[in-house]
Amino acid sequence: MKKVEAATLEEAYQKAATQLACSITDLQYEVVQYPSKGILGFLKKKAIIVATCKTTVPQKVTPEISEEESVASEILATVKQETVNREAEQEEVSIATTPTLQTTTEKDAVLDSFFEVDKLSEDERSDDELFEEESVVYDELARLIEDQLKELLSYSCFEIDVVEVDVRDNTALIFIDGDDAALLIGKEGYRYNALSYMLFNWLHTKYELFIKLEIAEFLTSQQEMIRNYIKPVIENVEKFGRGKTRTLDGILVQIALEQLREAFPDKYVAVKTGRAGKKFVVINEFNNKSHA
Questions:
Q1: Where are the chain's structural domains?
Q2: Order of strands across the sheet with 27-33?
């Protein structure tokens, strides 16, 4: 009996036939795990089968067999017979395990239900099942990012005791707090901006995620400040049909962009760069789909 792993079932059949020195049509196999592509590269699974050859190969009888070899042969034959009996009693086998792994009925049920999901293609799964699986991936990804971020901050000179990460809708929501939160933000938010750029380059490159970084209540206060600032800008746009903000630094321009796009979903809202490299947000009818 051979346990074979491969990227696809076809490759697993071919590999098993090669190892057992027989043709694929002579294989007697059971699928332990169906292959799965996963989501965002996570939960990807290979095809796993357990196979034997239907045709029996006569064993060579040696003239002399030691006592140790005889005992080992009897034990092996007993184990094989128990395995065959167990497989015959099962009406539907979704996972092949050794007797030592099958300690309780409850554990078998958990394993069976886990591999049972992989038998369905993504087209056959309901939206709720796909959403639950995506949520599991996001939760695992959030824990991974959180652990790595904690390790990164442990090398800094700042006293930071709270690091929490949540991943939803392709965005990493990061919350950091501690005695030195204000120092981590820096004067006028320059350290906050630097950390935001660093985290974005890391997470977007590696996981294709956007980020929202909150240190203490800095982001919340900046959002409130921009909300008050753009009130006259919104009034100007409602009156004349277009407008723009003053130049904004760092995260402020992104906050203004989000809030103005929410206020004017049917207008063209974008970030522009002035001659001195300063950024600002413009609102007009340019490239507006409704006017195309």
A1: 2-104, 127-216, 222-291
A2: 2-6, 47-53, 27-33
